[in-house]
């Protein structure tokens, strides 16, 4: 067993735990042997935070939570558990108390906003033919096709769910901005990052899917968080 903390990866809207595939492989190569990826139902922030809490509670020892996209709202809500030592945000929402992802998005609407469409059951989808240009323009056509076909739609109401007590106010945090993000406006990412006063902010010339297009630099940031926590 290594002396590294457990890493719990939390996906966002329109994807599942497998979106972390390349980061998981990179973390394993770097000696992380306690890796976990939550599969959230995307039915409400409360449901998703509880699913994440349940996974964290099964882990003995310190945990670093890593959230992508809406997964950032989840770790913000669920990160108050005592064994959570740090929070890493990857092109992610980091709402304050009383804020929702939808409210934040309205401040600076993302470029691909019009490519999101509801179905008759209240779930929101990225139009499959628009998925690559919206979510993953820096991935190959094949990679983006698989993401488009396997996308996991959230209930539309989840966009309006508000955070109660943001964990980033009490826990150390790190943030990665995607400068070519079309799902969360980069200026929204910068604003959320700056108000958290994180240990480090990095910017990548990447799409919303930076975890897949630039897994090396994303893993570097997780590594940085782990080192910073060890030095604290």
What does this molecule look like?
The chain has nine helices and eight strands. It is of the alpha/beta class. The strands form two sheets. A six-stranded parallel sheet has the order 2-1-3-4-7-8, with helices on both faces. Strand 3 (63-68), helix 3 and strand 4 (84-90) form a beta-alpha-beta unit. Helix 2 crosses helix 3. The longest helix is centred in the C-terminal third of the chain and has 17 residues, at 215-231. The protein is globular, with a radius of gyration of 16 Å. The mean pLDDT is 97.
Enumerate the strands of the largest sheet in spatial order, edge to edge or round the barrel.
2-1-3-4-7-8
Strand residues, percent: 15-25%
Rounded average pLDDT = 97
Pattern of helices and strands: EHEHEHEHEEHHEHEHH
Low-confidence stretches: none
Q: Give the biggest beta sheet.
A: 6 strands, parallel
Share of helix, binned: 25-40%
Our Rg estimate from Cα atoms comes to 16 Å
Number of helices: 9
How far apart the termini lie comes to 22 Å
Number of strands: 8
Provide the structure class: alpha/beta
């Amino acid at each position: 067993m290594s002396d590294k903390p457990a890493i719990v990866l939390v996906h966002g809207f329109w994807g599942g735990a497998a979106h972390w595939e390349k980061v998981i492989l990179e973390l394993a190569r770097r000696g992380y042997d306690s890796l976990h990826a939550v599969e959230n139902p995307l039915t409400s922030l409360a449901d998703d935070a509880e699913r994440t809490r349940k996974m964290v509670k099964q882990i003995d020892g310190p945990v670093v939570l890593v959230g992508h996209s809406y997964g950032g709202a989840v770790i913000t809500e669920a990160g108050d558990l005592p064994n959570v030592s740090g929070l890493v945000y990857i092109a992610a929402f980091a709402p304050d108390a009383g804020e929702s992802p939808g409210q934040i998005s309205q401040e600076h609407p993302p470029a691909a906003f019009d490519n999101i469409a509801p179905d008759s059951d209240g779930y929101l989808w990225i139009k499959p033919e628009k998925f690559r240009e919206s979510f993953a323009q820096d991935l190959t056509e094949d990679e983006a096709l698989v993401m488009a076909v396997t996308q996991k739609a959230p209930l539309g109401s989840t966009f309006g769910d508000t955070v109660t007590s943001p964990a980033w106010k009490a826990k150390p945090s790190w943030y990665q901005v995607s400068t070519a993000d079309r799902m969360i406006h980069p200026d929204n990412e910068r604003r959320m990052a700056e108000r958290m006063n994180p240990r480090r902010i990095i910017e990548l010339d990447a799409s919303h899917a930076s975890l897949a297009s630039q897994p090396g630099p994303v893993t570097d940031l997780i590594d940085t968080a782990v080192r910073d926590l060890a030095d604290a």
